[in-house]
Amino acid sequence: MVVLSDITISIEREHDIVAARQKGRELAARMGFSGTDQTLLATAISEVARNIVSYAGRGTVVLSSVEEQGRRGLMIIAEDHGPGIADVGLAMRDGYSTGGSLGAGLPGAKRLVDDFELSSTVGTGTTVTLKKWLR
Amino acid sequence: MAQLGDQTQAQLLMRDMGLTSQNIERRRQIVGLEPQDLARIAAVKDLVLGHVEELTAVFFDYLASLDESRPLLNDRVLRERARQFKREHLAAMVQSDYGPSYVEQRVELAILYGKAGLELRVFLAAFHHLLKAIGALVLKQFEQSPLGGFDHFISLKKVAFFDIGIIVDVIVFDRERVIRQQQDAIRELSTPVLQIRERLLLLPIIGVIDTHRARLITESLLKAIRANRAKVVVMDITGVATIDSKVANHLIQTVTAAKLMGAAVIVTGLSADVAQSLVALGIDLEKLNTVGDLQGGMEEAEGMLGYSVVSAGTAPAAIQT
């Protein structure tokens, strides 16, 4: 996989979430994603960025334009050094939340994109990688 | 009494800025203050303590050479307090304790600079001259090993940059206060609840919904429902580009609260894109009564209230006479 360009947005407060998804929408539009895909990507970015604010307090979202096997895509990496997720399986289950929310964030974000990877270590932090390919 | 007032002001500001012990610890990490730095600072402690007066004079003499610092220097009370703070600062700088009380002193001094209208660039220039003077003292003490002298000075410089970080943040935070106040005003203006007919309200939502705004929307809607004895509310979200699970949750809660107050809510203007992302997120919006567009929503609302809108051309003859 080749990264063609990337932008890093530091996430600390609620308005950083808005900034991240606006940047994501702009990048998606430039790359030629359809209006619907732009909205899906913006929503996915919003979910993973919101998780950083809600559970880790501080982190980063990196948005990149990538190429792999002749196809182009948008990659979102949300990284934090927060408390980590003890049970990844449980966190990926619909309706499960430790934060009093709808519990739709992570499983929902997964359904909004094509590829989804979650790695988390308790006490070290969490990295969520999402990819959506141009059709 | 003034002293006491300012102290609480510094503490309040620290709270507003999120200057907690955790944040302070993080700031120390950011400038890279390590145990070996503290050891080096301890080694030059007496040197700095022995020159507090002289170093304070360097700072203020430089300020005095600049027209820009007149407001601070011409006010005798402010000037004397600033001098006293600077003496205390120099003494505290070499005590190797950079916790909340040290930060509180920095914040207090920054408030004073702000009050005197001391520009950031003027402060930075004077602070640089002060550092230069400290550096000259340290290098002189380490004449035999200039490299060691440099290391010791760099350790002190880390504290200086820790201090600058705080002073800059206080001054910027104070300026942003105006922006925050305006934001609050815009937020409040941007959530109008309009009465369209007897017992029918329209709530157009445009732009970004964050937690704070969602709360405002709920509040103003519930108030308007009570004041207008409304039975039906049309909530139009055509102007909301992105709805994530948190915002959806806010909307559901607002609708539920309105229901509890006896008003039915019709949500209109859900775009195709937003609808798809909500389905993908797996959010159950069954509870919401949604109608495609604002016009359809208004028609449905009027129907619920027993109104029927008739074009003047087709109105009953009895009225036409």
Q: What does this protein look like?
A:
The complex is a heterodimer of chains A (135) and B (321). Chain A is an alpha+beta fold and 135 residues long. Chain A has one domain (2-133): Histidine kinase-like ATPase, C-terminal domain (Heat Shock Protein 90, 2-Layer Sandwich). Helix content of chain A is 39%, strand content 34%. Chain A has 4 helices and 5 strands, in the order βααββααββ. A 5-stranded antiparallel beta sheet of chain A has the order 1-2-3-5-4, with helices on one face. In chain A, a hairpin with a 2-residue loop joins strand 2 and strand 3. The longest helix of chain A is centred in the middle third of the chain and has 22 residues, at 35-56. Chain B has 2 domains: 2-184, Globin-like (Orthogonal Bundle), CATH 1.10.490; 194-307, Transcription Regulator spoIIAA, CATH 3.30.750.24. In chain B, strands 1-2-3-4-5 form a 5-stranded mixed beta sheet, with helices on both faces. With 321 residues, chain B is of the alpha/beta class. The N and C termini of chain B lie far apart (80 Å). Chain B has helices at residues 2-17, 21-31, 35-49, 52-64, 70-74, 76-93, 100-115, 120-141, 146-189, 211-228, 245-260, 272-281, 294-305, 317-320, and strands at 194-197, 200-206, 232-239, 264-268, 289-291. The A-B interface holds A 14-15, 18, 21, 25, 35-36, 38-40, 42-43, 46-47, 50, 94, 101-102, 104-105, 107-109, 111-112 and B 208, 210-212, 241-246, 248-249, 271-274, 276-277, 280-283.
- Report mean pLDDT of chain A, rounded to a whole number: 90
Estimated structural class of chain A: alpha+beta
List the quaternary state of the chains: heterodimer
Q: Which CATH first-tier class of chain A would you pick?
A: Alpha Beta
Output mean pLDDT of chain B: 89
- How many separate helices of chain A? 4
For the biggest β-sheet of chain A, the strand order reads 1-2-3-5-4
What overall geometry of chain B do the principal axes of the alpha carbons give? elongated
Largest sheet of chain A: 5 strands, antiparallel
Q: How are the strands of the biggest sheet of chain B laid out side by side? A: 1-2-3-4-5
Specify the CATH homologous superfamily of chain A: Histidine kinase-like ATPase, C-terminal domain
Please give the share of residues in helix of chain A.
25-40%
Alpha-carbon Rg of chain A, integer: 14 Å
Count of all domains of chain A: 1
Q: Main beta sheet of chain B, described?
A: 5 strands, mixed
- Give the uncertain stretches of chain B in residue-range form: none
Largest Cβ-defined interface: A-B, 25 and 22 residues
Q: Compute the number of helices of chain B.
A: 14
Uncertain residue segments of chain A: none
Strand content of chain A: 25-35%
